[in-house]
Amino acid sequence: MRVLITLIFSLLLVACGDSPSREWETTSNGAYTASLSPDGEYAVIGSVQHGGSLWRLKDGERLYNWNHANGQFSKLVASTFSTDGRFALTAEQKRFVMWEVSTGKPAGFWPAEGGVLSMALSDNGRYAIIGQENYSALYVDTANGAILSTLTHSGDINTVAISANGLIGVTGSEDGIVKVWDLPEGKETFAYQLGDDVSAVAISRDASLVFGSLYYGKGKIWQVKTGKEVSSVGHFRTTITAARFSKDNKTLLTGFTARRMVLWDVATGNTLKNWRAQAPLFWRPSGLVVGDVAFTNTPNQYRNIFSNGLINEWR
User: Fold this and answer.
1) Structurally, how many domains does the chain consist of?
2) What is the spatial distance between Cα 295 and Cα 315, in angstroms, rounded to a whole number?
3) Region label for 237, one of left (φ > 0), alpha (ψ between -120 and 50) or beta (otherwise)
4) Which CATH number goes with the domain that contains 21?
5) Each residue of 155-207: pLDDT tens digit?
6) Which helix (H) or strand (E) covers residue 295, if one does?
7) pTM for the full model?
8) Range of the domain at 65
9) Residue of 268, 227, 273, 234 whose CA lies nearest to 250
């Protein structure tokens, strides 16, 4: 009996966490990919159950089905919104499609023979970076589908980011290197050997700051022009899975594998706020790896989306 009581108490502790101010469930059977618009107003879900879809979060309405072929549920492996939130990209392993958020209509589709792992899209959906399994990322002009340059690493490119104007890019690879690129020239601005395997990268809207983090390790913030380190965030033996700079560049919002979201002071690397979502019932897999994070247009309000398609709002 004592052992049983101890077990039950331990499980209850595991389930403890902070309570979000709002919550949305977008799919019951998990998601292959899940992304938030920069203002947190929309979500793209690549559901295991019903393929791709766009959700409006102010009323929790599923607006459009975004599958790549009629009558089929696409297995989407990656998704993202443009830096202004007007367009979105969804990808199967060998193909990616751009969509207009306001109408739900496709705006173009292109092949990606290297196997899509990660994507980023600039303002107006004009330029895209497609991170691939073949150790390269494509810099694409979506106006005509032209590949403007190929960005290379010595490992799979897990994570990418692009500036709002589409001129500066960031790539993070399993080779442990974060690279910042002059995209029109296809040249590295600087590269940093962060460690063994890069888990997430981000770039500020004005392209003055970049961020990169490790699997099971800390992350760093650098100045783009100088490559100078600004601060270090995160903790050893934890993994940052998503990151976004605030519009004023003063804070960085990050998501973790262990159902956590943390707000950091960019200048110092100090923790400003820490949220930990409640775990689901202990006999079900939690699925609570943070897939994306967003600052909303309401002050001191934040949203995150988990790998199981669950969305939380925090204040």
Assistant:
1) 1
2) 11
3) left
4) 2.130.10.10
5) 999 999 999 999 999 999 999 999 999 999 999 999 999 998 999 999 999 99
6) strand 290-295
7) 0.92
8) 2-314
9) 268
